[in-house]
TrEMBL record:
Keywords tagged on the record: Isomerase
EC numbers, comma separated: 5.4.99.-
GO molecular function terms listed in the Swiss-Prot or TrEMBL record: RNA binding; rRNA pseudouridine synthase activity
Species of provenance: Thalassovita mediterranea
Cross-referenced PANTHER family: PSEUDOURIDINE SYNTHASE FAMILY PROTEIN-RELATED, RNA-BINDING S4 DOMAIN-CONTAINING PROTEIN
GO aspect biological process, one term: enzyme-directed rRNA pseudouridine synthesis
Gene3D superfamilies in the record: Alpha-L RNA-binding motif (3.30.70.1560), Pseudouridine synthase I, catalytic domain, N-terminal subdomain (3.30.70.580)
Name this protein carries in UniProt: Pseudouridine synthase
One cellular-component annotation, GO: cytosol
Family to which this protein belongs: Belongs to the pseudouridine synthase RsuA family.
Domain Pseudouridine synthase RsuA/RluA-like: 4-151
């Protein structure tokens, strides 16, 4: 039977089980939170991003989740610098030009500040610049894609939380917690 684990990856945790960084460095990894043999992450989440990761022991399912060819949607909550404009949301929805080409159209909408856990360390706040939240659903998985998309429309991402992958949702999982799907 296929095992599927949903994990809420905390900020500053690598989305792999071992740290292949410089010798002597000890960065937090999945193995600091998950002690389950023979499961592997289906896709990645940047070290400075938080939220849902799916892990499985099924190689075909892992490929289906992580390969952009399958167009599995991923939904993110992004806290951005500035009050997100209608124009920026429309551009994100149409797709934006990044250095590695056009993105596919996305679902982009304003989001009231969600009730989420405090991030440690907290995001940088500038009193003179407001921030806002948006929900962005994409069907690709380029490197740092959401951060690059919000930056290209003029609203740099301050905090990024993935809340959904396909039909799997983060639910009430707190950072560092996991459960079987």
């Amino acid at each position: 039977m296929t095992r599927v684990i949903l994990f809420n990856k905390p900020f500053d945790v690598l989305s792999q089980f071992t740290d292949r960084g410089t010798e002597g460095s000890k960065r937090a990894t999945l193995s600091d939170h998950i002690d389950v043999p023979k499961v592997y992450p289906a896709g990645r989440l940047d070290r400075d991003s938080e939220g849902l990761m799916v892990l499985t022991d099924n190689g075909k399912l892992q490929a289906k989740i992580s390969n952009p060819r399958h167009k599995m949607t991923k939904t993110y909550w992004a806290q951005v610098e500035g009050e997100i404009s209608d124009e920026a949301l429309a551009r994100l929805a149409k797709g934006v030009e990044l250095k590695d080409g056009m993105t596919r159209p996305a679902r982009a909408e304003r989001l009231e500040a969600p009730e989420v856990w405090d991030r440690v360390p907290p995001i940088r706040v500038r009193k003179s610049v407001p921030d806002s939240w948006l929900q962005l659903t994409i069907s690709e998985g380029r490197n740092r894609q959401v951060r690059r998309m919000t930056a290209v429309v003029g609203f740099p991402t301050l905090r990024l939380i993935r809340v959904r992958i396909g039909d799997w949702h983060l639910g009430q999982l707190q950072p560092g917690q996991w459960r079987d799907a």
